[in-house]
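Here is one chain, start to finish.
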Amino acid sequence: MAQALQLGESFIGAGVNAAHVNTVFGHREGPAGVAWATALATPSHGHVPFVTVLRPSLPVKPLTLFVTKAAPATDAHGLLIWGPAQAGIAAGVADALADGTISPEQADSHVIIAAVWVNPAADDAEQVYANNRESARTAIQNGSRSLPATADVIAARNTPTNPFFTPRA
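Its structure:
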């Protein structure tokens, strides 16, 4: 039986090598499965979703679709997306499976869509990998716990901030 979608978000790290991952987790036979298949079948210029693998011919479970938030700006940026960021997402999903956030039964019945930001200025493959690994695991965990809490959203409404903008007080 299909269950509610779990939507997760996580931002890990600082500077150009930080990772920002959004996840959609749900049953293959529900809206997540439809979105997963549709995204895979309808790439757009610069945004080609692909199945995330732990190594060639070993996709992570649940099957995870990697969707770039930023089109590859250079060959080096593309290599950071397809190499360390992909490896980090795969390892982070596997971590969520290993720690029980995702059950063994869900590994074969559910899918994940991971929308992944890799800054075009990123310059440290190991940091990109580590940040994406932790961000994927955390986003899935946050989705499973329906985080953030509504009270936290209300409390922060007058002090929004992000790495690109903080309004004047």
